[in-house]
Automatic annotation (TrEMBL), chains A, B:
Coiled coil regions in record: none
SMART domains tied to this protein: FCD, HTH_GNTR
PROSITE patterns: HTH_GNTR (PS50949)
Record's protein name: GntR family transcriptional regulator
Entry keywords, A to Z: DNA-binding, Transcription, Transcription regulation
Top-rank taxon: Bacteria
Gene Ontology terms for molecular function: DNA binding; DNA-binding transcription factor activity
InterPro entries: GntR_C, TF_FadR/GntR_C, Tscrpt_reg_HTH_GntR, WH-like_DNA-bd_sf, WH_DNA-bd_sf
PANTHER family: GLUCONATE OPERON TRANSCRIPTIONAL REPRESSOR, TRANSCRIPTIONAL REGULATOR, GNTR FAMILY
DNA sequence: TTTTGTATGATTGTATGACATACAAAATGG
DNA sequence: CCATTTTGTATGTCATACAATCATACAAAA
């Protein structure tokens, strides 16, 4: 007979850390940080040396990143960091816009009181992060905010999709998030979303979510245009990742 | 010296056919056809034997399918065909709904006359496919229709996302598409979408797209409920793929 | 009878070496 | 200077090997 102490022990699951997941994380953050710029060719042998992993594991990681849309493949020439045309970026923001509007509506329909409170709290954290100006903190808080939003909306699939979109546009975001004006406006937009959700006004929440994403898009494009001149450079070899 | 006949020959560029792409296609169609049922464990060694490929290539294919969300992974137990909870399915349809509404609006904004005509033509083909009752033809026509729609909307990213969604819900679709009532209603809904687009009425097109997807969802759930009784079975070993 | 310890097999994770193929760039020859 | 050949580069694929972990069955002990 098993003992029943009444205690609930956490499952203590072995949080799978296959090597390829570390590789994926390393490449992702290198891309997001701009160490691997769009158009950079990824040579397997070089990456194996730099990351000190076998080709087998590296290739599996590359296949995943490829399927996620971060890397693009050309026949007999291998992989390169995906480039984002202006049209693609605009579409990514359009899709995020309708997705977030959907999730906002669903949140109002399905979330329980606890989740409303939690979302409000995470909204505060997010606004604080914006005011702090740290890109890293903003991204972390944003992720937590959307996680709560989608989870309250009972729509984890949307969370998945939103993450994929943000992954693809990560190059743009890192430049635009750093702008002071953008940060101030973001705070106002977050407030609008939170207020609409708190008021259980699905239409207003949807509109506010729309507005937030579209204003983010405008800011990202403005930021991009400022640096475009330098960026017409030819494809590069992969840079050093060990930094 | 190369001949120049004045003809424009299609690039015919070896559309790379790596073995893993064939593997992916084989597994995909096996899942869509129901040969590999949700919950089936995928044992690498067995699949290697059945497909007569090396583990290296197979695993790379599996990583891609995993990233696409078709397969789910549990630590130290490997992969299995992803199961779709009812909530997931509902969300997939919700997302498709807002995506298609978006694309319909964008199509009206951006498409040129040629594309309007082409979409109308593909709409006819699609309706004919519905009337023929062949699931295979319906799927093919639908894909062509959406391809044209997204391409006219200048939104290939949306096409990508829609395809991912349909991939995940493929299990449901194959059963629901086969129903006669559904086919008749689909024809009416397609007509509504085409009419709204032809009239350049973005609001109506968006509404019609919404309605189409949501009615498809309702039908899929109805079809699913009819077969649910048999499907509470335990996890299965992988079936024979060579058929 | 129940629990615990142990052995064994199954399965994935990772690494290595090898070979074929296709492309790119350099060298060669006119 | 152009065309052809050669060489180098990089990926695609395979076979093999070993480690780590889990599942199962079975024996030993309580």
């Amino acid at each position: 007979m098993a003992v029943d102490t009444g205690m609930k022990l956490a499952p203590l699951r072995y949080e799978s850390a296959p090597l390829r997941n570390q590789i994926i994380a390393a490449l992702r953050s290198a891309i997001e940080a701009g160490i691997l710029k769009p158009g950079t060719r990824l040579i397997e042998r070089d990456l194996c040396e730099q990351l000190n992993v076998s080709r087998t594991s590296l290739r599996e990681a590359l296949r995943e990143l490829q399927a996620l849309g971060v890397l693009s493949h050309t026949a007999n020439r291998g992989l390169m960091v995906g480039t984002l045309t202006r049209e693609d970026a605009s579409n990514a923001y359009s899709i995020r816009s309708v997705l977030e509007a959907l999730v906002a509506r669903q949140f109002i329909d399905h979330a329980i009181d606890d989740e409303f409170a939690q979302l409000a709290s995470l909204g505060l954290t997010l606004k604080k992060a914006y005011r702090s100006g740290s890109v890293e903190q903003i991204l972390k808080a944003k992720r937590a905010f959307y996680d709560c939003l989608c989870s309250g909306a009972r729509n984890n699939l949307a969370f998945d999709f939103i993450n994929r979109l943000t992954l693809r546009t990560s190059q743009l975001r890192s430049t635009s998030l750093a702008r002071k004006e953008r940060q101030q406006q973001s705070v106002r937009e977050i407030d609008a979303i939170l207020a609409a959700i708190a008021a259980r006004d699905a239409g207003a929440a949807s509109d506010a979510a729309h507005a937030h994403v579209e204003s983010a898009a405008a800011s990202a494009f403005a930021a991009q245009d400022q640096v475009t001149e330098d960026e017409i450079a030819p494809p590069r070899r992969s840079a050093n990742l060990t930094g």
